[in-house]
């Protein structure tokens, strides 16, 4: 029993990507360790005008502002998802309110025990799976009756589900050329998975996917049912926070390593030396160690971190505005979703105004931040073209 519980916990952690936070911490720890190394000692000349710009002690965006820029989107994710799932659920017309298809999909997820198991069995068994659906709620948990607005949507969802199941059953029958062995309503399947006794979707088509001697070797698929709003809130908020964390951690790791390897001198390098009392006539000085911060110009860490933090937030705004529909959306939505990019662009340009970086440092740092953000979003999220939103990817073995 202890080993079973341990395996269940491990399965839960892996399925919901909780272990990916460990990767983020590892990337951040390596980046912090690399930043304490001595950068490459690039030779210089006191007559080089490209590194003789004025040193300004005050920065437009000090380093502590990057912490706020990086953490603020995560706070927005949590508050917005809490409002969407726990406060605005079912309210029509709001930006965060679910549209018809999104609401139906969410209703299907919530009522998977009613008419979802048949669909899952059909899709899973075509890939050689056997389905287990342990609910997150106790079996005797009571549910509130459906409202008058929800009942028509539930009927529409059940109708479409029956139609989809019939099509899948016909495809499977044509593929194997055998008549399906139909399990009686309410009776357990050959693997002991009972069909739902509620709703018409559990009859006929749902159970017709169990065929005799035609299925390949099967594995178990564990389905987690998120029947409560707070459960869906935790899932969505966790996924977006993970996107934010991985984007920032990965970009920081890349930038820290490149900074130490390149050892490029900042535009105000000579001014930093003079401020510390060094001159061309100074003797017995190891200029490879002073000033260390003046030798890490390439690429720009401020530019990378700000873009890595804000680009996922732009994707979240576009997701909330349903901007990924194949049918097309208004350019106003796209413009509104991309509006926060003003902040990282301002941060990047300010680094050249403060004589902290060259323009190519800023461009390279910005590119690293953008690529890191795109990689994080692509790895963790996928597009639901019907709703125009992003939804989490879950690891599985196909």
UniProtKB/TrEMBL annotation:
Residue ranges occupied by any Phosphatidic acid phosphatase type 2/haloperoxidase domain in the UniProt entry: 241-377
Ranges of Polar residues compositional bias?
Answer: 141-150
Keywords linked to the UniProt accession: Membrane, Transmembrane, Transmembrane helix
Kindly list the places in or outside the cell where this protein is found, as annotated in its UniProt entry.
Membrane
Pfam families (UniProt xref): PAP2
SMART domains from the xrefs? acidPPc
Query: Which is a GO BP term held by this UniProt record?
Result: phospholipid metabolic process
Q: Which residues cross the membrane?
A: 21-41, 61-80, 240-262, 306-324, 331-350, 362-383
Supply the name of the protein.
Phosphatidic acid phosphatase type 2/haloperoxidase domain-containing protein
Query: What's the source species for this entry?
Result: Leishmania enriettii
